[in-house]
Every structure is written in C-alpha cells, then in structure tokens.
C-alpha cells in the first residue's frame, strides 16, 4: 500500500475521532438560556388575598467546567437575568408592580457518562447563591401605596442539572442543558413608615442551548 494512501486513511480516522475527555481539561460553554420560574408566594402583609408572580427571562450565559477526571467535572455559571414582578389576587389590577435583576452564581459537581463518545450526557448537583439587585417599584405600585422601595433578600439553595454535549469537531460541541434551582426570597416593600413583606418561592427551570469549547 502506498504511503500517501495510508496517510489519507489515518487522517480520515483522526478527523472522525470524538473529542476525548482528559483529566485537567477546561471547558467553556456559551449558552442562550430561558429562566422560567415556578413561583408561588404568600400574601403581601396587610393586603389580604394578594399574591405575587415572577416572569420569565431570556439572557446569554457563560459557564466554565474543570474536568478533575474523565468522568467528573465542576461547573460554575456566570449570568444575570431581569424579571418582572406582577400583582395577583386582590392586587392584580396593578399589573406589573416591580422589576429586579438576579445574579445567580451556581456551582455543580457533574458526572459525565461516556466521556470518550461523540454524544456525552451528564448529570450534576450543587449549590446556588442568588443576589437580587436594582429592584424598583413601578408607577402603579407607587400610585397605590405611595412612594415605595423594593428589596428582595438573597437566596441560598440547591441546584440539579442534566445535559448533553454533542461533538461538532474535535474541540467544539453543541450543548443542551437544563437546571432546576431552589430559589426563595422575601420581598420587602417599604412605603413611608409602613413595611409590607411577602415570601416568594421562585424555583426556576433554566433551559439552555449553546456551543462549547474544550481546552
């Protein structure tokens, strides 16, 4: 068999080789995510029959994964999302009552199945710490209660994850990812000397699709 023919066969074999996971690999993924809350709240104190809802958000996200072994990795996500807060029940006529930004760094420990295959599913579990910032009342809330400041307490909870990486090239792959985050906060509405509170369970599903790169 002639050398050029042998070289061509070997080159074709290399091109077909999946992106093999190795100890010490760093993985970077860029995703588009949708954050869909599964929210419920207590009544706002002093406003019987009231309720609060939290809207969904679509934003970009970046995450970084370090592969300690071929199967085990640790992922941290970097993203921030903006959400509308709406009045329900006895305050539903107010519509949107506030908006807030959320910074939810989430660290998960992952197990990657079939790390040497072209299609590599994984599962993960970890912890989330969510910071709510730049929360503001809307004109409708200010009109109903007077000038009102809105503050939401930080949240600490668990996170569950599943996803899959699908090779596009040796270093680049498609990623699909879904997380459930245990997220709870207390909304504090201060109007003059009156403080009204409501406990809100947000508990979002975070679904993402994006591209990953292995280094």
Q: What would you say this structure looks like, in words?
A:
With about 220 residues, this protein is mostly beta strands. It has helices at about 5-15, 140-145; strands spanning about 25-35, 40, 50-55, 55-65, 70-80, 80-90, 95-105, 105-110, 120-135, 150, 155-165, 170-180, 185-190, 195-200, 205-215. It has an 8-stranded antiparallel beta barrel. A 4-stranded antiparallel β-sheet has the order 2-14-13-10. The two termini are about 35 Å apart. Mean pLDDT is about 90; it is low at about 1-20.
Briefly say what this structure is.
With 215 residues, the protein is mainly beta. The protein is built from two helices and 15 strands.
Q: What is the helix tally?
A: 2
Largest sheet: 8 strands, antiparallel, barrel
Percent strand = over 45%
- State the helical fraction: under 10%
Q: Please give the alpha-carbon distance between the first and last residues.
A: 36 Å
The residue ranges in which pLDDT falls below 50 over 5 or more consecutive positions are 1-19
Derived from helix and strand composition plus strand pairing, the structural class reads mainly beta
Sheet with most strands: strand arrangement: 1-4-5-8-9-11-12-15
Secondary structure tally: strands: 15
Cα-atom radius of gyration: 23 Å
SSE order, as H and E? HEEEEEEEEEHEEEEEE
Q: Report the average pLDDT across residues.
A: 90
The geometry reads as elongated
């Amino acid at each position: 068999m002639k050398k050029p023919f042998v070289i061509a066969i070997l080159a074709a074999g290399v091109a077909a080789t999946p992106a093999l996971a190795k100890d010490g690999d760093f993985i970077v993924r860029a995703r588009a995510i949708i954050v869909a809350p599964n929210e419920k709240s207590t009544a706002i104190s002093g406003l019987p029959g009231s309720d609060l809802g939290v809207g969904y958000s679509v934003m970009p996200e970046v995450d970084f994964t370090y592969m300690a072994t071929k199967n085990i990795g640790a992922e941290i996500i970097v993203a921030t999302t903006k959400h509308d807060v709406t009045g329900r029940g006895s305050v539903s006529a107010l519509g949107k009552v506030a908006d807030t930004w959320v910074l939810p760094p989430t660290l998960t420990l992952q197990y990657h199945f079939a790390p040497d295959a072209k299609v590599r599913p994984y599962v993960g579990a970890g912890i989330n710490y969510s910071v709510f910032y730049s929360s503001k009342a809307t004109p409708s809330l200010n009109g109903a209660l007077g000038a009102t400041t809105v503050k939401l307490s930080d949240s600490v909870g668990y996170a569950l994850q599943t996803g899959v990486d699908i090779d596009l090239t040796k270093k680049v792959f498609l990623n699909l990812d879904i997380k459930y985050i245990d997220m709870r906060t207390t909304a504090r509405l201060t109007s003059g000397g009156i403080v009204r509170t409501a406990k809100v369970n947000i508990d979002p599903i975070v679904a993402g699709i994006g591209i990953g790169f292995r280094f």
